[in-house]
Inverse folding.
């Protein structure tokens, strides 16, 4: 499975990647074990965003959770050590996180058309590369109607740069951890 199965026609796409000097299996393990407490930029930016959710008691586990465990989308596919794909519906511009979305498979997300939602897919892909493993992160977003697209566009102007900074920080943390293991 890849993002074309979830959000084939996105309106917003972000991509970050880097080559990590370690085997794919090591990078995969480190990607899954990076804890929030080791990501200071993520804690600050995510903390600002998650504060209403924490107050509403929707966020549990704190800083000992792994980064992948707090992604607000369900895992649709996991193919160790090559890829993990998340996907679902969100209303991220709402402080409380919005309505509770239905849990859908990839086809359900792709076909969802009820107004007021954005369809989101996020993929972490690991491929062999000269010098180790190429780890890429791609996020795609498509609104279900024009009014929601305008609402999300305004939201994304504010949070898009921080969202990218969080992903760059994650890539750096995975690289540091995986390369230290490979060297040791």
């Amino acid at each position: 499975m890849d993002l074309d199965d979830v959000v084939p026609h996105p309106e917003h796409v972000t991509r970050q990647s880097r080559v990590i000097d370690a085997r794919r299996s090591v990078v995969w393990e480190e990607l899954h074990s990076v804890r929030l407490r080791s990501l200071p930029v993520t804690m600050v930016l995510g903390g600002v965003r998650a504060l209403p959710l924490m107050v509403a008691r929707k966020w549990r586990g704190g800083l000992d959770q792994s980064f992948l465990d707090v992604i607000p989308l369900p895992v649709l596919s996991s193919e160790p050590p090559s890829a993990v794909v998340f996907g679902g519906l969100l209303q991220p511009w709402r402080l409380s996180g919005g309505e509770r979305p239905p849990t859908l498979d990839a086809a359900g997300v792709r076909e969802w058309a009820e107004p007021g939602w954005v369809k989101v897919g996020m993929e972490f892909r690991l491929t062999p590369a000269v010098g180790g493993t190429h780890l890429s992160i791609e996020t795609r977003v498509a609104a279900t109607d024009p009014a929601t697209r305008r609402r999300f566009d305004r939201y994304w102007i504010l949070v898009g740069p921080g969202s990218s900074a969080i992903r760059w920080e994650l890539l750096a943390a995975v690289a540091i951890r995986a390369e230290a293991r490979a060297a040791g």
User: Anything to note?
Assistant: Residues 146-183 form the longest helix (38 residues).
